[in-house]
Amino acid sequence: MAEPRLRFMLLLAALSTATGTESVIRTFTPFYFTVEPADTLAIRGSSVILNCSVFAEPSAKIEWRKDGTFLNLVSDERRQMLPEGSLLIRSVVHSKHHKPDEGFYQCVATIDSLGTIVSRTAKMTVAGLPRFSGQPQAVSVHQGDTTLLGCEVNGDLVPFVRWEHDRQLVVLEGRFLKLPSGTLEIGNVSDSDAGSYRCSVETAGLSKTSEETELTVLPEIGAERKMKFLQQPVPMSKVTGTTVILPCVVSGYPTPTIHWTQNSETILERFEKFTLVGSGSLQITDMTEDDAGIYECIAESGNETADAQAELSVQVPPHFLKRPVNIYAHESMDIVFECEVTGAPMPTVKWIKNGDMVIPSDYFKIVNERNLQVLGLVKSDEGLYQCVAENDVGNERASAQLIILEHDVPIPTFPPPSLTSATADHLAAATAGLLPSAPRDVMALLVSTRFIKLTWRPPAEPNAEILTYSVYYSRDGTNRERVENTSRPGDLEVTIGELMPDVKYVFRVVAHNKHGAGESSAPFKVATQPEVQVPGPAQNLVAQANSPTSITVTWQEPHSANGPIANYKLYYMETGAGSEQDVDVGSLSYTMNGLKKFTEYSFRVVAYNKHGPGVSTEEVVATTYSGVPSAPPQNVTLEVRNSKSIVVHWQPPPPGTHNGVITGYNIRYKKGGRRGETDTTGGNQLSQIIDGLERNTEYSFRVSAITVNGTGPSSDWVSAETFESDLDESRVPDKPSSLHVRPLINNIVVSWTPPENQNIVVRGYAIGYGIGSPHAETIRVDYKQRYYTIENLEPNSHYVITLKAYNKIGEGIPLYESTATRPLTVPDPSPMMPPVGVQATVLTHDTIRVTWADSSLPKNQKITDARFYTVRWKTNYPANTKYKTADTTTLSYIVSGLKPNTLYEFSVKVTKGRRSSTWSMTAHGTTFETVPTSPPKDLTVVSKEGKPRTIIVNWQPPSEANGKITGYIIYYSTDITAEIHDWVIEPVVGDRLTHQIQDLTLDTTYYFKIQARNSKGMGPLSEFVQFRTPKALGSSGKLGKNPSLMDPGSDTRHSISGHNSPHGSPTSSLDSNTMLIIIISAGVFTIIIVVIIALICTRRTNYQQKKKRAACKSANGSHKYKGNSKDVKPPDLWIHHERLELKPIDKSPEPNPVMTDTPIPRNSQDITPVENSMDKDHQRRNSYLGRELEDGISTLNGRRGLRPKMMMPFDAQPPQPVISAHPIHSLDNPHHHHLCDGPSSPTRSYLRHQISSRPLGSSVDRANSTESVRNTPNSDMSPAPSSQVHPVDNIEADVPAVSYLPGSQEEESNRNVPTAHVRPSHPLKSFAVIAIPPASTNYEATSSSTPLLSQTGTNPQVHSVKTASIGTLGRSRSPMAVTVPSAPDVAESTKMLEDSDSNYGPDELTEEMTHLTGLMKDLNVITTA
User: Fold this and answer.
1) Which end of the chain is more exposed for a tag (fewer CB within 10 A), N or C?
2) Packing angle of the helix pair 1402-1424, 1258-1270 (nearest 10 deg)
3) Average pLDDT, stretch 116-140?
4) How many C-beta atoms lie closer than 10 Å to residue 849's C-beta?
5) Is the pLDDT of residue 263 over 60?
């Protein structure tokens, strides 16, 4: 023995010195499971541990898989991996439709440099809630006899059943026996056994007790009673090593005697494993396979005999007879892992490589149904392989490691004692030296269909004796090589067999000497011969279904058999399965049985002769017949809609159980114990409304699937109760009216009363609880429930509990309650406390900063450890919004990307290592508003019936309002290509979604757009909507041809004669003429005063004043308004007769609402970046006025000219009235007609002037020409030449127009309502003649150009109180008082006059005098007329 050991040590030394290192061969690493998870029965609400432990060096990474999917244990609050690798599941969750913890678990261990192994599969079953399918029944029994008390409970809860006699626990021994079904057997009954009995089930604190039943003991009278089996043995199947009780209970008098037989052989009680228990049941302990068989219970009483039998099956988990072993190999070699198992039923074998299933292929083959063969090894084949054996009662696995060595490293072996020195030398590693060159002239000596014989010449430079040759070969196009070695030194040929016909292969040859493997020869390609002697394909292959589970396949012999056919091989596969199976057939047909119903299969046939398999046929497919569904529909749920209807929801049966096309579903429902009714739906329908039910009544429902073959099994009954009355579910429920808690050590009993408002639907209650925060766990209970016990709590801990009622809309207002569970003798350490003082500070419309404090930190709140905080947030609308989370290491976090104007709730928790707190109390914050980001929706335009000139605009609010909508702007135009500032605009208050526009042109196409605004500004414009007004009827065509003839819908102008007044009261021609004379006289008087003042000013001019005048003139050279009225200094001595306005005291027939100062823009320049242009007629119409007009009516005649000035109505009046003051340019300014109300005009007040007096003289022509153009909708914006002459009827009145009294609709729609407007200017640079209205009117004229500060104290109108009233969308407001400020005292006025005197020189005064002369001529012409 010493010599072989010495040789082996020399071998290892040689292996070590070959590379100059101490270890050149990697050793197999011990890597296996010391503890694997076992099948577990868990109790709902309790904790469970699945054990797992691994022996590995270095340490392995352990993970867990459930149902084939890896668990994410980092973010799982209930599942946690213990240090040694076991899985801890706290508070197991289990309900009828939610079973997250039940399933198959595997422990997965990985070493990166080695591979992965997988533990056995452990099944975790969760015991359901205790429930009794039947209650114990009262029993009467004779003294000395045997009786049974039944307890019908869930099968998985039988081990937890216990019995009580008169509320005292029954000890199960002697005469008392609990049978496998939970039934209590009492033998040899005595009087003391009489009384009340009940059974109970307790699981993890959940307890349920049956009803009590009475056992009555009757005296034994001695009369014979016939034997009767109270309980016969039933067939059972048990696993080896367990204990089983075969029940057999017989009653009668005289008392029967019982004995047992196994397979007709009497069981002797002397065997310790067989024991009679109770009155005759057989108990078998530590079962083995030999215990299987037919057991018979035989009862004898006097001459009477009775027997009953049952079969006992013994199942054996998989057991390894031969485990796979570790293997060393080189690339291109073939290896076989051997694995032999046994068990009952016989286990199936699968192979796993590095945790993944091995799929059979050309190179991975399952040999003899259990061994794994790997052909042509490559480096990636290295790793850990596991043989997995499974049957119905268990699964086991054994692992082995494959290490692939470099080609120059020999495979280590343990030499047997008979190892010769020559063999040892051959196994020894090569010493340093020269390697052989490549073999020469590799060629195919013989090529057949399934083998090739190769030959070659020795290398030109062997450099030592050639020991052997290795021939590597592979299919052309693949990189996985196989190797064949020569058997003797000096062999120069080899035969490669088991090849495929007509396939090209690549060969190369390598020579080995004592120094190692040499160079490889060049690749040599050769193809095998086509198979000519094997059979051809079979003919006429046909597959035909016979039944839902069988298909018959027929075929005919091949045309070219090439000899006698030995047999046929039928290959079949379920379509889409991916794995093909085969069966040997000796005839020309075969019937496949045991197939799946309504499943498609593919078939092909290969004929075999003495040369081997022939050519395969083409595949044919056939589908088995359909059958009735084999499983009921899933997830049947009920939704109570109201007091008379319930909606039934379900899901189809599981895939693979349809057994055909589902053509419909059968819904059966019943009330109480009555006979039910049936409703049928279509096959694609997964819900159904059941109507016509009774109020406040409980109904039960079940659903079954239907195919053409019939109806499948029905689901379990589910019940729901209709409402007592129809309730409101358009809002969330109110908070419950009361909440009470009662703490125990590990439980808290919560009770409550429903909300006081019983008119809102309550579909259930949500109970939240946690330590320090109520958001750690949430439980939902039925709406009928009024109490709940929260279990598995920590003792001596402070819990916060919240209760909310909910319905489809969402959860209602919560009620909060806090309490502390009772302490144990040894209190557990307190968990991490959640953060406190959570606050949410709103920063912007999409950003909120969340801050908090950590009570576990020092007072300075400095974080010195590796803890981090998780912030979560969500909005409650809609109700099913999911939380979003973010992690931070500081005590604040800025949450961005929120929705504007939205209420969010925030909570925080802290995590340190593996410890985490519960969620903190919530903080709330509502983001700021921002401008709408989407336009109003569903813009439509329709014509108003009976009024072809009136249209109705309808719309819906924008989907992204981002705040409360305060108003809408309607744009419309007849020219779609016009700039947006040239469109007419209509403002509408924010609470309206419709608006009327009247007096449009007939037979004209209009384009409409709309935009919304909130407190932050305007939103985007909508897409345009096109609408064409109806064609004219009657004389409307004539009106359209002559713009000067105004129809009732047009914007008519009042004549100079003054027949119409703004408010509809008629006035005489004499009053108008008198007013005109007064205005002219006042104008002449004002001119004379100005001339005198101007002469005084010229004498005080000096050089310094000229410099100031030059600067002022340079600043005002453009005569455009670019700021407010304080910054503009128009040229002096302008006469603004065209701006002369009258402001009436508001005594109109109806009160008008007040126009207030508001951030809403007054024109389109304020609304959009582009410039809008409209005329003054639109300014007057755009004031929401309408004494008898309907809400939102406006007109378009003459509205396309200058930019509009809008006035927006609001509900609330401002605390102080506002009067705007603006300077007015002269009509002589060449820019006047375009710039008086243009984009740069500073006249942006909310109180706009409505009626302007006409200029005198030549100015009348310009104004008239301009107004004529504006009265034509399609006219150009440029003014007409001043030389154009118009009839007097078309000239606007120079005096305030007075409209008729309320009359026809046409008159009322054309009213022009004046508003207060005061325009300031320098005291000496503009003036106006104040016209005194007739006594019959109620107007006060206010100069349109004289500033308030320049009015003299002698004017009694200066101190009067004036009112401004502007209509607003059909609502009436009381007039708003406008107080005109008092004029300055004399000293101040004198100072202002002195300051103004020095602004202009003689040259400018001369120029002004020239203007005055022209104006006087104009006045004379008007006076003469």
Assistant:
1) N
2) 70
3) 83
4) 16
5) yes
The pLDDT score that the predictor gives to residue 255 is: 86
User: What are the angstrom distances between the C-alpha of 1216 and each of 479, 669, 1360?
Assistant: 93, 71, 16
Q: What are phi and psi of 191, to 5 degrees?
A: -60, -30
Spatial CA neighbour of 260 closest among 271, 251, 249, 269: 269
Q: What is the chain's alpha carbon radius of gyration, rounded to the nearest angstrom? A: 52
Is 1322's pLDDT higher than 70? Answer: no
What confidence category does residue 174 fall into, taking pLDDT thresholds of 50, 70 and 90? confident
Number of other CB atoms surrounding residue 680 within 10 Å: 14
CB 410 within 8 A of CB 402: no
**pLDDT recorded at residue 1029:** 92
Q: What are phi and psi of 1077, to 5 degrees?
A: -65, -40
Q: Does residue 719 have a pLDDT over 50?
A: yes
pLDDT, averaged across the chain: 75
Tokens of 1120: 């455009």
- In the DSSP assignment, the letter for residue 934 is S
**Letter string b/e over residues 941-957, b meaning 16 or more CB atoms within 10 A of that residue's CB:** bebeeebbbbbbbebeb
């004898």: which residue's tokens?
Answer: 300
Structure tokens at 79: 């599942």
CB atoms within 10 A of CB 1291: 19
- 389: closest CA among 355, 327, 346, 338? 346
Residue 293: which residues within 8 A CB-CB, separation 6 or more? 262, 263, 311, 312
pLDDT, position 825:
63
E strands, 652-726, are 664-671, 677-682, 687-690, 698-707, 710-714, 718-721
For residue 997, CA distances in Å to 1205, 1210, 1366 come to 18, 20, 18
3 state DSSP class of 341: strand
The residue with tokens 């037989």 is: 261
Q: What is the pLDDT of residues 222-256, one digit of tens each?
A: 788 888 888 899 898 889 988 999 999 999 888 88
CA distance 469 to 220: 98
Say which DSSP state 598 is in: T
- Separation between Cα atoms, residue 874 and residue 880, nearest integer Å: 10
Q: What gap in Å lies between CA 1236 and CA 1234, rounded to an integer? A: 6
Residue 942 tokens read as: 């329709």
Q: Please count the residues of the chain.
A: 1425
Bridge partners (DSSP) listed for residue 327: 402
> pTM of the entire structure?
0.39
C-alpha distances (whole Å) from 403 to each of 9, 375, 1191, 1253 are 22, 15, 90, 108
Looking at the predicted structure, is the pLDDT value of residue 25 above 80? no
Mean pLDDT, range 778-797, rounded to an integer: 89
535 membership: H or E segment, kind and range: none
Residues 1161 and 1182 sit within 8 Å (Cβ to Cβ): no
Least confident segment among 4-13, 774-783, 1199-1208, 1341-1350? 1341-1350
Of the CA atoms within 13 Å of residue 255, those in its CB half-sphere come to 12
- What is the mean predicted confidence (pLDDT) over 444-449? 86
Residue-wise pLDDT tens digits, 844-877: 999 999 999 998 888 888 888 889 999 999 998 7
Torsion sign over Cα 754, 757, 761, 765? negative
Q: Which amino acid is at 574?
A: E
Helix (H, G, I), strand (E, B) or coil at 1095: helix
Mean pLDDT for the stretch of residues 756-765: 87
899/902 Cα distance (integer angstroms)? 6
Percentages helix, strand, coil for the chain, rounded to the nearest 5?
10, 35, 50
Q: How big is the CA angle at 861 (ends 856 and 862), to the nearest 5 degrees?
A: 105
| CA-CA-CA-CA dihedral for 240, 243, 249, 253, to nearest 10 | 120
Beta bridge partners of 41: 125
* Alpha carbon distance 1288, 1422 (integer Å): 12
Amino acid at 275: T
